[in-house]
Design brief:
The protein has about 200 residues and is mostly helical. Helix content is about 55%, strand content about 5%. The longest helix has 28 residues.
């Protein structure tokens, strides 16, 4: 467990009182991004980004197990591996950490899913700030932000100008579109459980 975290009935609590979501399961096939809908909705609304987008990104990043032990093994095999349920690389985390004066370390993404979701929401917010208002009509703004999350800010801005994405980015976008209805249902169910009037309009 990262420094500055303490256990509380199977969960962790970060300094400042942010309660972390439960640790992803160790068993293969046991991970479901919908388990983190509460953290997704809270972090997305705090950051001012679409919770459906953030949830769909988590679905796209669920291609490998996210249990902390397995991520440690993964990093031993691949030193530049990404960490956490939102699959974030160290360089991206450090950029977000500096921009938002975040506590914690990159390794905390591995041990604290709610922190990982929070940082991912802030990263999407930062991408939204640099995405031009007028973009190629072939993509929705949320799709461009997801492509930026996957392929980086520079590529996102190129796609926004109409530059065709490569095979990996196209595959990421196809999966995002496939996951979108499931992500939207999870967010709607979370809103209903809270007695909310509904999620804000998608951008």
């Amino acid at each position: 467990m990262g420094e500055g975290l303490r256990a509380t009935r199977g969960r962790t609590v970060r300094p400042g009182g942010r309660q972390a979501a439960r640790t992803p399961p160790l068993r293969p096939g046991g991970y479901d991004p919908a388990d983190y809908t509460t953290a997704v909705v809270r972090s997305a609304r705090e950051a001012g980004v679409s919770p459906v987008l953030l949830m769909a990104v988590l679905h796209n990043e669920a291609y490998k197990p996210h249990h902390p032990l397995l991520e440690r093994v993964w990093q031993w095999w691949k030193r530049d591996a990404s960490f956490g349920v939102a699959n974030m690389h160290r360089a991206t985390f450090e950029k977000v950490r500096r921009a938002h004066a975040l506590p914690g370390r990159w390794q905390d993404l591995r041990d604290d899913p709610a922190f990982a979701v929070h940082v991912a929401a802030l990263h999407l917010k930062d991408l939204d700030r640099v995405l031009p208002e007028r973009c190629a009509r072939r993509y929705r703004r949320d799709e461009l932000l997801a492509l930026g999350y996957n392929a980086g800010e520079r590529n996102m801005r190129a796609f926004a100008r109409g530059v065709p994405p490569g095979p990996m980015a196209r595959s990421y976008l196809r999966r995002l579109r496939d996951h979108w209805p499931r992500a939207a249902r999870a967010v709607a169910e979370e809103d209903a459980s809270r007695g909310a009037l509904g999620s804000p309009a998608q951008r």
